[in-house]
Specification:
This protein is α+β, with helices and mostly antiparallel strands. The protein contains 11 helices and 5 strands, in the order H-H-E-E-H-H-E-H-H-E-E-H-H-H-H-H. A hairpin with a 2-residue loop joins strand 4 and strand 5.
Length: 242
């Protein structure tokens, strides 16, 4: 049984809320997105992101984040994930780990990955968790604090270890099942298939450019599309809701 230190009554209440949410979420909900913000609160973190490793694409996909610049995350997805000096080793550990367990801070801050990616959003102290079922990667949680904040400690590792079985069980329920697009995401996808630009879509649906991008990215993630052309082709084939 995991023994967690330095936990307040508020922490215990939040931990219980996260567990209860994991138990009641249905298979159509992306539970990573449903719990990441509260997980950051529980770990007293500033930044969070989550991805799923896709062996068929040999890359991390289906990502989202909190308190990180979407443009910077796009740079990670397109470039920096292939030049990431730490994530492969962290993922191989298959448990909650401090980033410094695989790469010292002294070495980390000298890398291109830190200076041109992590530091742009202020990420400095890191802790990662990779959830597996056997050899099947169910998803990860990448949690960071700013340089002005204290290092993560054993408290955070203990909390993640305590949550691990609940996360694994809930993630297994939703594995391999497509998420349902919201009506607005479906509207955006349909307009993409008609050849509309993001600004055209914003004008037609009376929503902001950033909102269009959010709906478009969600639709592509839910349908495992690498770009808008793949999403448009899926709409044309009538496969959007399959």
């Amino acid at each position: 049984m995991t023994r967690v230190r330095d936990v307040t009554s508020q922490d215990l209440h939040l931990f219980g809320e996260i567990v209860a949410r994991l138990e009641r979420l249905d298979s159509d909900t992306d539970l990573r997105e449903a719990v990441l913000l509260d997980l950051m609160r529980l770990l007293r973190a500033d930044f969070g992101a989550s991805y799923v490793w896709r062996p068929d694409h040999t890359r991390f996909r289906h990502g989202f984040s909190y308190n990180m610049d979407p443009a910077n995350l796009k740079r990670y997805e397109d470039w920096f994930q292939f030049r990431d000096p730490m994530t492969r080793q962290l993922r191989q550990r298959r448990r909650a780990s401090f980033v410094e367990e695989v790469l010292t801070r002294h070495d980390m801050i000298r890398t291109e990955f830190y200076n041109d990616f992590l530091a742009r959003d202020g990420l400095h102290h890191g802790i990662n968790m990779y959830v597996f079922d056997g050899d099947h990667d169910l998803g990860d949680f990448r949690i960071w604090r700013a340089a002005s904040r204290p290092d993560f400690a054993s408290r955070e590792i203990d909390l993640l270890n305590a949550l691990d079985p609940f996360l694994r069980r809930a993630m297994l329920r939703s594995a391999h099942r497509p998420e349902v697009l919201t009506p607005r995401e479906a509207d955006v996808a349909a307009l993409v298939a008609k050849g509309c630009t993001d600004r055209d879509i914003g004008r037609l649906l009376n929503i902001g450019f950033a909102t269009v991008r959010t709906h478009l990215n969600n639709a592509m993630r839910k349908r495992c599309c690498a770009n808008r052309a793949e999403l448009a082709a899926m709409v044309a084939r009538g496969k959007l809701d399959s």
